[in-house]
Design a protein that fits this description.
single chain, 156 residues, alpha/beta, 6 strands
Length: 156
C-alpha cells in the first residue's frame, strides 16, 4: 500500500494505527500515478501550531503564503521539489499535477481541504496522523472535498 514522506520532524511518534504528536497545519500532496492510488505516497509540509492555527516554534522552510502563516502550494513546489533529486521522479511535474490539499486550524477546529479523488478513509487517516489531528489536540475535524479548479489535478 502507500507510505508517507514527512518533511518536518515528528515528535512523539508511535507507529501503527495511531500517531500521537503535536498539532500542525500545512499542505500536502498525494503522489500517485494510478487512479486506485495503489502506489501513493503522502508528501507533507507541516507547520507546528496552536489550536488557533498560530505557528509556533521554528520552521525549516519559509512560510510563503500571502498571510505569512502557511504555505502556498505553487511556491513551495517550485522552491523545494522542482529539480530536487531527493524527490525523483515527481520533481519534474507541475505543482498541480498530483492531487493536493491543506490543513487549516482555527478556534480549536481543523479543516482538511482536498481534491475529491483523495477523499478516501485510508488517506484521510494518514493525513490526520501526519498533522496530529487527534481529539486530544483539537475538538473538531471537518473534511471538505473541494472539486473546484483550485484543487484540480491529473485525475480530474
Amino acid at each position: 500500500m502507500g507510505g508517507w514522506t514527512n518533511i518536518a520532524p515528528i515528535e512523539n511518534v508511535i507507529f501503527g494505527d495511531y500517531l500521537a504528536r503535536e498539532l500542525h497545519s500545512g499542505v500536502f500532496w498525494v503522489i500517485s500515478d494510478f487512479h486506485d492510488l495503489s502506489d501513493y505516497k503522502l508528501l507533507v509540509f507541516e507547520i507546528p501550531c496552536d489550536v488557533n492555527g498560530k505557528p509556533v516554534g521554528t520552521h525549516s522552510i519559509e512560510l510563503n503564503s500571502k498571510s505569512g502563516s502557511t504555505y502556498n502550494h505553487k511556491k513551495l513546489w517550485k522552491d523545494t521539489i522542482v529539480g530536487n533529486s531527493a524527490h525523483k521522479p515527481y520533481n519534474r511535474k507541475s505543482y498541480d499535477y498530483y492531487p493536493r490539499g491543506r490543513v487549516e486550524i482555527s478556534n480549536d477546529r481543523a479543516i482538511i481541504y482536498l481534491n475529491p479523488n483523495i477523499d478516501k478513509p485510508f488517506i484521510i487517516n494518514e493525513i490526520k496522523n501526519s498533522f496530529g489531528l487527534i481529539l486530544e489536540n483539537i475538538s473538531e475535524i471537518r473534511i471538505i472535498a473541494d472539486g473546484s479548479n483550485h484543487y484540480k489535478c491529473w485525475m480530474d
